[in-house]
User: Fold this.
Amino acid sequence: MKKEKPVSANGVRPFGMLDKLGYAMGDMGCGFSFQLVSTFMQLFYLQYIGISTGDYAAIILISKLWDAVNDVLIGNMVDTKRIGKKSKYMPWIILGGVTLVIFNVMIFAPVQNFPYAAKYAWCLISYCLWSVAYTMVNVPYGSLHSVITDKPQERTALSTFRSIGAALPAVVIMIVLPNIVYSKDINAAGEEVQNLKGETLLPVAIVLSIVAFFVLWGTTKLVKERVVRPETGENATGAKAFFSAFKSFFTNRAMVGATIATVAQVALFNSTMSMNNMVFQYFFKDPSKISLAMVGSYVPMVIIMAFIGKLTKKFGKKTVCTVATLVSAVAGLVFMFVPMTPDMTGMILYIVALMAINAGNCTFQVTVWAIVADCIEISYRKSGKSEEGSLYALYSFFRKLSQGIGQAVVSLGLGAIGFVEGENAVQPEGFGEGVKTLYIAFLAIGSLIAFLALKFIYNVTKKDEEEFSAIQKAE
Assistant:
């Protein structure tokens, strides 16, 4: 006799492993695109296409101004325009996934022989269109978190699995791709160097984009929506949606604090990963060893994932993340002044430094999506409006804006220490040491800003987290 699947009172199966795996697959799909763009687009445009550092910074900042409009529009559309009968979010994920494939590939098109104005326009338009496609996937996917479950520990579990999903594409891109996209060459000074093979990134983008789409499709099949929010307020549309979304966002102190911490994390951690590539390319002179740096990024995350549920249950997410980011800030400031040599000994010390600094970043990264779900919960309790899409879209905008800020700051920072753009370019003496120190400084500053935001602005306590679930049960 066939065993029937258990269902809850509203006819949906209880929260379980399928939801966790499905939610992890969503960020895995987004990650194959996001990690490829955040890790290699800057190198591709500067070293292969031949865009100047100043013009690249302008591309990033212009695209983020566009995001200010694009993200809020799409967020409001997700809240108010149902394009499917059974789910508010799943059809948007599929539609966005298709467009993401197209524009992800467009970014890595080999336009290096275009006239400079033409290739500059191509790079700018490609990145703006990619931002639209990414928003169409990421906003409904992120909004799902707050309606899959209302229980604090289950939200933390989803956040943890989302981090696992995000980590897997990063591992593939940081470990496998360097062996594909770099080659050993002799530069004009007669030195053996590792150069980017820009022509390899187009087929890589095609393959990863197709994989991303099918992983996102898997999310729509495994995740179930359970939290029903009766609306006592009316969602705005059109021009009013901008003002309504901004008002809800900026009058939510917890959301502001979480967003500032996120901006610091994304701008000065995630968006500076290309500098880590350059540390191995120009300081250690062996980018094939960059896979070792993954130890510094992901060993702390694996350890934290094993304990984060118990820690947040006992102390609350605010306390855990505040302490962790303070530890990272102190570690970063210390390692800025620790001398390192460009050999295996120095490489080991560098990896130890990354492990110490990334401990706080990983703690916040594993927990942040549950934090955002709590912030959205606060907004609903206050206004009675179901604005998951609009609020998450604004949060997503600031994440993308911080990505742009980070890449612009990195580009300007590289220019300040003498980076020479173009294929097979010879970098000035001392550039490797300079890029290593600059990278560690960015990580330390990001941790410090995140600590201050979580300590003094973010105000959701452990007691508040527990009350969210109790209120939902009462309703």
In short: The two ends are 37 Å apart (CA to CA). The chain has one domain: 17-221+236-474.
